[in-house]
Each structure stands twice: as structure tokens, then as C-alpha cells.
Amino acid sequence: MNAPQVVKMYAPRAEIYPRETSGRYARLRWLCVWLTQLAFYGTPWLRWNGRQALLFDLGARKFYIFGLVLWPQDFIYLAALLIICAYLLFLATAVAGRVWCGFACPQTVYTEIFLWIERRIEGTRSARMALDRQPPSLRKTARKSAKHLAWGTVALWTGFSFVGYFTPITQLAHEVAALSFGPWEWFWVLFYSFATYGNAGWMREQVCKYMCPYARFQSAMFDRDTLIITYDAARGEPRAPLSKRAEQQGGACIDCSMCVQVCPTGIDIRQGLQYECIGCAACVDACNGVMDKIGQPRGLVRYSTDRAMALHYTPTMIRLGAFRPRVKIYCAILLLIVCGVGSALYLRMPLKLDVIRDRGSMGRELDDGAIENVYRLQIMNTSERPRRFHIAVAGMPTLSERPRRFHIAVAGVPTLALSAGIGADVDVAATETLAYPVRVRAAAGSAHSGSNKINFTLTASDDAAIHVTEHAVFIVPR
Amino acid sequence: MSDFTSGFWNIYIVVLTLLGVFGCAILLYTQASTKVTAPIDADGKPGHGVGTTGHIWDEDLTELNTPMPRWWMWLFYITIVFGLCYLYLYPGLGTYAGKLGWKSSGQYQAELKQADKDYGPLFAQYMKQDLRVVAANPQAHAIGQRLFLTYCAQCHGSDAHGNKGFPNLTDQDWLHGGAPATIEQTILHGRHGVMPPMGAALGSDDDVANVAQYVRSLSGAPHDPIKAVFGKSKFGVCMGCHGVDAKGNQALGTPNLTDKIWLYGGSAETIMETIRKGRDNTMPAFVDFLGEAKVHVLAAYVWSLSNDVNAPLPVDAPTTANVDAAAAK
After folding, report:
1. Are residues B181 and B297 in the same domain?
2. What's the domain range around A67?
3. How many domains does chain A have?
4. Chain A environment of B40 (Cβ under 8 Å)
5. Across the interface, which of A12, A358, A439 has its CB nearest the CB of B153?
6. What domain range includes position B175?
7. Residue A465 sits in a domain of what CATH number?
8. Displacement of CA A187 from its chain's centroid (Å)
9. For residue range B14-57, what is the model confidence (pLDDT) as tens digits?
10. Angle separating helix axes B70-89 and B7-31, nearest 10 degrees
11. Are the Cβ atoms of A5 and B36 closer than 8 angstroms?
12. Are residues A257 and A400 in the same domain?
């Protein structure tokens, strides 16, 4: 037994200085940076039909997505979108491991941008390490200030673009010029900027290691055929520096530690798959560069699978591993959901109707014995053009021999008019809701006493395919 | 104000809350480090030089110590400090009201005030105009309809055609008068309509039935002519309120009995019930709830339901133009 020792459960973070890489995967990552950031910063500026193409108007509770206007009632589509995203991630993870983490995740992308800025201002890995070791000096303060200023600028632009998805960005740009943001715009611009600055500048790999739930539950989607970053220990071991290779029969690994120096999460890939590995393949690029220089074949560190390493698969056999049942099932489910959501969106009516029966009275009896019920129709024209809708009522079974006769009497604008006959027309402005009181009248004896089922049908006058039917109850007092 | 039945519960909650907060702090402090007697280093495998927490199960199962970042621990301390500040500033400790004196009712009042500030000028502008001018304004009409659907439709119906006991607002028959100013007065200050029980004053049940038949005859409804003749002789009791011609009196709010419009129903049974038991009907006052300016817009909407808003105005009606001109003088 040793003497008791005190062990700390919390430790200060060791700063990581990832070395710059170049190569196939670095280029791929920069392509992803450009694509995602062009989309993120650029989309709010796109126009569509004289308005912002993508705008989530939380105040008016309307989401504009190009030609589509979604209302709170369409929340199911947001759920569907999230399910599709989740399945895409499952699929990508099952096939290629943490490829999302390594190439497209905002945390990776912004860290990449911030690292680029850092390198331009503070220099390479060794220069940065040296700078941090130095005592405070004018030069150090100037470098650090310049870096944080540049980071801050990118972060503020990011925050501004983010809020531009919720407040029209042209209006926001004018407000920036006049510094006249509302309190919530200030809060979100600064909050999102701070999150970008903090996460990409200071937190970096700690977000993936300690905060991101997805990083951890991805291991549930891994199996032996999932692509991971591997170190070919059979080929690499025993490690030996280049200088000593002559006298001893070493493996291919010259222990140059380049793979460790480039790692953004500070691990040594040669110890095998670790939970910190975000699959960014920086070590693959680094090792390939070294292998090229010492005239060895590439691929000591490479994308491979657990099974392929154990059974010495060829690349073709690895690729065939992607066609395993797990992947096929993910693909099938994904296809099913995408088709379902696609057809639901295609068939979606740009019109909604709620029928609210007046609760104050069961039913009015008129002089001639006819019964009147009052309803409030909430007519929601979700299209971006003013429309006229025809209201019709149908469906009450009659007890008597008399022909069924309904009147819709329209209360409201500008004076009460009793329009006899079946149905009435109503105009609803673009993307507006109209509360429209109507009376439905049944001739004496034409309905059961008690509750009768009726239907309200709205049909657009310019397009008969746009119609909606809502059930309601017509009450005849006993 | 406290909902507690005894002072004990106040102290109970304060003690429990503070114990919880300080308990978290103590737990955090004591658990941030541990004394280990087992080997610190698990020989490089499988932890690769990572230390252990000293816990060993099933002879050789050790728990690796992969320490959390230190800022994580500080976040816990910050939440504890935040919690204490919150409990100091806001109500949370038993009946303690908090330094800021925040109340949900206070927040509601502040939001109401803000809404008044936002929409007040719009209503104030309508307030200056004659009610008939407001009625012809489409925007004011839309606001009026929304007010009506929110505050009036429960009793008068979404279509304003009324219900049993609640008058129809779209016809020309008015209990208290349908002039713009009268409608506004009705909404502002409410109305109370009382028909006293008249059974005893009229006499026997037969007398009541006879008067009911007479009342039906006034509007030309089917009735028993003989009973009606007897009823007419007793109708004098009713004339005090309903008038000699039975056409009602808007000053008293008594209904016209000669038309086909019935507040409670025009069948003989219903009329007899009304005579025997009387009626008591209240329209609540809205002046305190909505304020004069909103009622003005609402009254304009109600007036528009039974009047032609496009008819020419009387010459003396104040319009925005001549009100502004008067103000300028």
C-alpha cells in the first residue's frame, strides 16, 4: 500500500496548439468551410418575391422558406426536418464515423477559421507556443489584441448574420448603421457573437469533449465496419527515429510526433480509437506528408475500419462493407421519411380553417321556427396572395320531407347583409387570418333536435384544388 | 401576502432552500478531490498513464480519473452564487418578497402600460372624432370587430344577433336607445333592466294568462281574443313602465311589446313566466376595464351594425378636420 495521495477531480486545461496541415483532407475541410459559410452568411441576403427568401418571423409567427410560408400549425414539418437531419447523421456516422464532426460541424468550421486568423497573426505552432511562454510585452499585447479584435469582428458578423434569419437583414443593416437595435436584437447579436468567439476561440476541443452530446452518443452507431481514423500498428511498430533506422529494423513509424502536433483535440492516434477523436483526418494528412518525404508508402495513418485492420481488407472490401444491413435500413427509413415529407409538402393546402361555435347559446329559434347557430370561422390564408374563398355548408341529415335548406348569413363588414342561398364569398388578405362570424340556418323541422354534424367547406375562387373541409356541430334545442 | 396557514411553513421553506444551496456548495468542495491509497497510475494500460480514483471493484476493476476541466467546477460555483443573488433579489425564500419587489401582477401592469403607450395614440385619435366618422373608418371598424369578438360576443353572439336575455344589436329595436351617444353610454356605464314580478299585482293566474294573450295580440301574434279582451282590462298595471301604447320607454329601458322582437321569448308560456317572476337583466359597465377610448371605437362598431355608415353626417358632427381647427383656436 502506498501512502494516501490527493487526487484532483478537476484539472486546468492544457492549451493545444494544432500545427497547420496541408493535404487532401485539409482541402476537403476548407471546401466545407467555404460551402457552409457561404450558405450561412449569404442566405439571409437572398430575395424571393420581393421579400427575404429565408426569414423566420417569430413576432408574426410565420416562417418564410423561399416559396413556402409555414405557420405554427405546420410545426410538424420542423419535427420532420429534424428527424431527417438526425437520420442523415446516423447514416453518415454508420458509414464514415464522425465525418460530420471533422468536416462540417460549426464548432469545427469556426475553430478552423479562428485558427487560420491566429496563424496569420501569431504565427506557426512553435511561434505561438513561444509567444505564450514570453513575459508580457508590448509586442505580445499587440499580437494578442489584434487576434482578439479579428476574432471579435468575425464573431460579430456571425451574430449579425444569425439574427438576420429572424429580423429582415436589410433592416438590420440599417439599424447597425444607426446603432438602433432593439433590446432583443442587441441581446441575440451579442449572445451569438459571444458564443462564436468563446467556442471557436477559447473552448475549442472542450466543446466536443465535455459539452456535445452528439459526440458521445455517436459511439452507439459505430460498428466494426464503420470508417475510423486508424494507425496501422502492424506496419508502424516498433517506432524508431529516422537516425536510428540504419542499425535497428524499425517499423514505418519514425516517431516524428507530427500526428500528435496537428491533432486539434490533443490525442495520439497511435493509441487507437479514442472518444476525443473527431475524425478530422489532420493526422492522416500529416503522416502522409512525412511518408512522402522519407520515401515510404502512404497510409500508415488512414481511414479504415476495425474489421479491415484485423482481417487485412483491401480498399474495395472496405467499400463493400458500406452495403451492410444497418446502412441499408438507415437508407430505407430515410428515403421513406423524405418521400413522406416531400409529398406532404407538395399536397399542402395554403389554406386553413378553424370553426369555433358560439358557446353562449345552444341555438336560436326564429319567428318562422327556423333554427340558427352562430360560428366564428378562423380563415387562414397561408399563401402570399390575397384570395377570395367560397364558404359552403353541408351534411345535416333531415328528418322531414322538406328539402334541405341552409342559409349562410354573413355578419360583419361593413354592414350586416343576409345573403340568401347556399354559401357566401369572403376575401382574405395574403398571409392573414380572418375571424369571420357566420350564421347557419336550418328550416323548421329539417334537423334532429340535439346535435347534428355539419361540414364547412372553403374553396378558393381562383383555384378549385385549394379547398378545406372542417367539421362542426349544429345544435337544435329540444 | 402569504398563502401559508402558519408561520412555520415559511421558515420550513427558507431553511430547506438554503440547506439545499449550501449543501451543493459543500458537496462540490468536498468532492473536488479525493485521497487515494491505491496506485495513482494504472501502469499505462488501459489508461495510458491516466491516474485512477482509487476505487477498485471485483479485485481488478479500477476507475480511471479523467479530470473535468477546472472551469467546469467554477461554473458550478457560479450557479450557486447566482442562486443566492436570485434569492436575494426575487421572491423565492418563503414569504420574503425580494429586494426588487418583483410581482407577476406588477409585470402585467407594466405590460398593460406599455400597450397603452403603443396603442393609446391611435385610440386617442379616434376619440377626437365623431362616433359616426369612426364607424366609417375601415381600420377602426376592424379594431371594433376584434374588441366585440373578444368582450361582447360571449353574450351577444359573434354575429351580434343576441341570445335569450341578451338583445340583438343589429336591428332598429333598442331598449335604451340606439343613438351613437346612447350606445356609448350603455357600454361605458352598463345598464340594469328590472321587470318586477307582477303576478300578485295582476291577481289570479287567469289574469296573468289573460294579460299574456293581450300582449301577444299587440304584435299580431296568434292569441285567444276573449282572453285578450280580459287581459286588456288588467294591462293598466303595466302601462306605467311599458307606456299607454305598450311601445316601451327607452328612458326606463322597458321593451316595446308591439313588435315581434322578444328578449326572452314571445310564447304565451314565456310571457306568463316573465309576468309572474319578473326579469332582472344586467349589462356590465366597461369604462374601468376598457377605458373610454376603446369603448368609443367599440360603440362605433356596434352602431355600424344597424346603420348605414356611408350616409351623410349631420352638419354639426365634429370631424378630425374641424376638431383640429377648434383645437387650433
Report:
1. yes
2. 13-348
3. 2
4. 2, 5, 7
5. A358
6. 129-190+284-323
7. 2.60.40.10
8. 22
9. 999 999 999 999 999 998 888 776 555 545 444 445 677 777 78
10. 160
11. yes
12. no
* Rounded distance between C-alpha atoms, residue B174 and residue B185, angstroms: 13
Q: How far is A407 from chain B (nearest CA, A)?
A: 14
Identity of the amino acid at A441: R
Interface check A183 vs B, CB under 8 A: no
Domains contained in chain B, number = 3
* pLDDT of amino acid B37: 65
Evaluate whether residue A2 is within a structural domain.
no
**Are A335 and A442 within one domain?**
no
- A-chain CB neighbours of B114 within 8 Å are none
Asked if ipTM goes beyond 0.85, one says no
Residue A293 domain-assigned (yes or no): yes
| Nearest in space to A283 (alpha carbons), one of A313, A307, A253 | A253
Question: Smallest Cα–Cα separation from B180: which of B87, B302, B270, B86?
Answer: B302
User: Rounded to whole angstroms, how far apart are CA atoms B110 and B52?
Assistant: 57
Residue B14 cell numbers, joined: 427558507
Task: Name the residue among A145, A143, A187 with its Cα closest to residue A163.
Answer: A187
Q: Which residues of B touch A360 (CB under 8 A)?
A: 153-157, 163, 166
Alpha-carbon torsion angle A132, A137, A143, A146, nearest 10? 120
**Strand (E) or helix (H) holding B320:** helix B320-328
The pTM (predicted TM-score) of the whole model is: 0.82
Across the interface, do B67 and A411 touch by the CB < 8 Å criterion? no
| B79 in any annotated domain | yes
Closest Cα in chain A, distance from residue B154 (Å) = 5
Q: Which residue has the cell 516517431?
A: A255
Whether A5 sits inside 8 A of B35 (CB atoms) is yes
Chunked mean pLDDT (size 10), chain A, 478 residues: 73 92 95 97 94 92 90 90 93 94 96 96 95 94 96 96 94 90 92 97 93 90 93 88 70 92 94 92 96 92 93 91 92 95 92 90 76 87 90 60 39 32 73 84 74 86 92 85
Q: How confident is the model over B290-312, as pLDDT tens digits?
A: 999 999 999 999 999 888 888 87
The arithmetic mean of pLDDT across residues B194-222, rounded, is 92
Interface test with B, best of A1, A6, A7 (most B CBs within 10 A): A7
Residues of chain B neighbouring A10 (CB-CB closer than 8 A):
32, 67-70, 72-73
The pLDDT value recorded for residue B123 is 95
Which residue of chain B has the CA closest to A363? B163
A358 near B CB under 8 A: yes
Q: Is A271 on the interface with B (CB under 8 A)?
A: yes
